[in-house]
Structure formats: structure tokens, C-alpha cells
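Model it.
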Amino acid sequence: MVVFLVRQQEGRLGDLRSNLWLSAKCGIAWGLAYLGTFVAKWGLASIFSGENKFKLAIESAEYRTAGSAEGLDHFWQIIYAPNANLSTMFLGVDRLSRGNIVLGIVATIFVLTTVIYLLRGKVFHKDFTILMLLLSAVVYVRYLVLNNHSYLHEYFTFRAQMSVVFALLAISWVHLDFSILRKKKRS
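Modeled.
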């Protein structure tokens, strides 16, 4: 996201398709590196312990994607996982502080749209906006896939939403015209 923001600021972002392709290649490279780390970690654990630790690791991964937390139906756990993380981000006291989620989202939308409306530039950067929103959505896809882990450990996993915050701020930043503030100061 930082690379795309810098490219946008320098006027060399390119088209949406090429940036999505670059993101996909980076995601594939990350996935292969993660797989390599997984194999190395559990391979070394198996060698040093003399036991096959891959089975334990795979069972743990299965539980994090399909396990049920606190007697929840799996469907509801998938729904609640992103909400629990939003609740934590918006200072909810409970795992699912719905009021905090709604208030936080509404306040965020209100503040960002107000600032963009008051300081909007002349050009709408559609490709950059779509790119940032798609990249930030990866966090919520992760919450849905690893729903058990994301629901049970929302106090730790909510931090991944920092990329969503960055994306929203970056979108706002590229659409603002700060010369409006300088003009108003002179008046």
C-alpha cells in the first residue's frame, strides 16, 4: 500500500489491472515464503523432537479455520469474527459491542467524507481508490477464513486493521487539496 501511495503521489501509479497483477504476484510470493517457513519450522520441530509435528500443526490450522468457539454455530462464528475485531478497534468492552461497531463506522465515514468534501481536489483517483479498498479487504477475508482464531483472539488480531486505516487515510490524502486551507488562511 505504501508503494502504491508513493507511486500515486509521484504520478506513476499505472492502471488498476497492472497494479492488481503486481499485488497478486506479491501475494503469491508471500504465500510461498509462508509455506516454506511452515515446512522448515515443523520439519525442524519433527527432527529435533523425533515425532511428526506436521500432524499437530495441520490439526491446529484446521481448528482455526473450522473449529467452533464458545459453542457458537460455525456460520455465526464466521459472521462474528470480523465484528469482534471491529468491536475491539472501536473500543468495545465486550467481544461484540454492536453499538461501538456502528458508532465507530458511522463516525469514521462522517469524518472522512466531511474532510474530503471540504478539501476535495478536482480529480477523483478511481484506480487508486479501488486498489486501496481491495487491498484493505484482505484483512477481512483473513478474519473470515481464520474465523475461530480471529474470533477468540480478537484483542490481538484486530491490529491487522491498521492496513484498513492506512488505506482510508491514503485515499483521503490523495483526494485532498491543501491549497484550499492556505487560501482561507489569507482571507
